Amino acid sequence: MTKTVRLTMAQAVTRFLSRQMTEIDGKKVQIFGGVWAIFGHGNVAGIGEALYQVRDDLPTFRAHNEQAMAHAAIAYAKANFRRRFMAATSSIGPGALNMVTAAALAHVNRLPVLFLPGDVFANRLPDPVLQQAEDFSDGTATVNDCFRAVSRYFDRITRPEQIIPALNRAMQVLTDPAECGPVTLSLCQDVQAEAYDYPESFFAERVWTPRRVRPDRQELAAAVAALKGAKKPLVIAGGGVLYSQASRELAKLVQGAGIPVCETQGGKSSLPDDHPLNMAAVGVTGTSAANRLAEEADVVLAVGTRLQDFTTGSWALFKNSGRTIIGLNSQPFDAGKHWALPLVADAAEGLSELTAALKGWKAPAAWTDNALKGKTDWQADAGKVTASTNAAYPSDAQVIGAVQRTMGASVTLLHAAGGLPGELHKLWQAGAPGSYHAEYGFSTMGYEIAGGLGVKMAKPDEEVVVMIGDGSYLMLNSEIATSVMLGLKLVIVLLDNRGYGCINRLQMATGGANFNNLLKDSRHEILPDIDFAAHAASLGAISEKVTSIAGLETALGQAKQNSRTTVLVIDTDPLVSTDAGGHWWDVAVPEVSSRREVNAARKKYEEALSERQA
Ligand SMILES: Cc1ncc(C[n+]2csc(CCOP(=O)(O)OP(=O)(O)O)c2C)c(N)n1
Ligand SMILES: [Mg+2]
Known about the structure:
This protein has 614 residues and is an alpha/beta fold. The chain is built from 24 helices and 23 strands. It has a six-stranded parallel beta sheet, sandwiched between helices. The N and C termini lie far apart (62 Å). The mean pLDDT is 97. Residues 417-420, 443-445, 469-472, 497, 500-503 line the site of thiamine diphosphate. Keywords: Thiamine pyrophosphate. Residues 418-569 form the Thiamine pyrophosphate enzyme TPP-binding domain.
């Protein structure tokens, strides 16, 4: 007879989660690093009580905002190269929906996270319960259906035994490199508390190791033939290189064949910035070194990238009309994009097999030498814009220079939205794989601080530096208090340009009037003068407003010594961004307007559109 144990559905969930394992560097560890939770009536009695039962095996962390706690969970998974992840549980209604944006963030970035929002009563007897939205025509609809569009797997648990196949499926999705993304198990409040005789075997320890798919023979042969015929080959390294931890295999291939590499936002730090063949950032926020090559490349080996518009310059960057793209990706959806020759495989496996098959083949030396020279030219340009200054309002690039000089390349640098992603993509000199943590798939304002917290949980011994604009800071800063509470130190550099600087610049570039972006251009009775240092101090951080680049460097030196989260605030110039490098980006400009500036921008826009090769 099957041995069973009588547990509530919620108790079964937490017990199951605590027994899922993985292996890192030959050591067995829990695959769930913990559960983030904010309780309400939809989860406190069910999941809340069940988390208490396992608190010594599976830690629970409390946050101040459900979106932020999900950000922390997602960043934790990314910093662990998807090898370990977390769950996040909320009440029903607003608590649950606060996590929907984060679910989309994880979906876009292909990152694993388990959402456990509470849901309405499956028995429907007390309806409508507090925070229940009633659908007039569909009795099965609840607000948690919003998660469907942004989950790789969504399920609503309306009977306690449904959790058995649902958690099996959840683990498959969370650990599959191709399918990987958010899983939402929407847990009806009454069912969380219902008991069932679960088979003991359901709670057996399981060890999940990442699947490394090897290439199909025909696809490999086609890719090798294309590369061997290349005169101007280029590798684009995307986030998949990091997720697969394939940096060594990438270096081996490109060093052997003399192929220059460029990196997407997600793929930056695949090779260290000082690797001679690393042309660094590609695309809209790319370096001149990378973009020059991208324009001419005849064979583009795109590894682990979604080929998002920032990478392809909205498909106007790759100008060689005879070009072939090889899509090396674990996900066929990505591998075959834009008529690429698909090479469906794990990045490390695919790169190794390409290296073996290309043995002895080298790209024309003139192409490789040209790349090396382009890199030197770019480094000279980058050095100019990041140099120190006495200006009252330094540029983002000058602040980046100060952070780089003081903190070095051994820190993990995190950012997500505003003007910083573009500047950091070009200018940050990354060190080890994963030391550059950009959330630029969804570019979610407010990811930064909570994301930094998740990274620090994954890498407690490393210095985690968060760079953030005033807009992002004001959108979501509450987890500064959590970082202090948990003793997880962050160094946060806040660039205050008094508004949405990058969108203001985009508005001007598309012919718009300065309107509703910078605070001064927005409807106001009193122009805000926000004391960010005082705000951060009120949340428990050490904080300081610095007035110069030199002052920032001194304060950063001190921040390294601090054991508590430190927030350094500096006023910056909202109008300046780095001209060097870069590429056109498709942002639709109005076809008719009464504004002369818009009409001029539209003309330029139409010219740029004609460059696109769809
Ligand atoms: C949640 C969210 N809302 C809106 C946007 C669009 N957006 C991108 S950057 C930006 C302004 C960011 O301001 P700030 O953080 O101060 O950075 P800055 O542009 O000034 O460098 C806005 C509104 C976004 N990316 N995310
Ligand atoms: Mg700003």
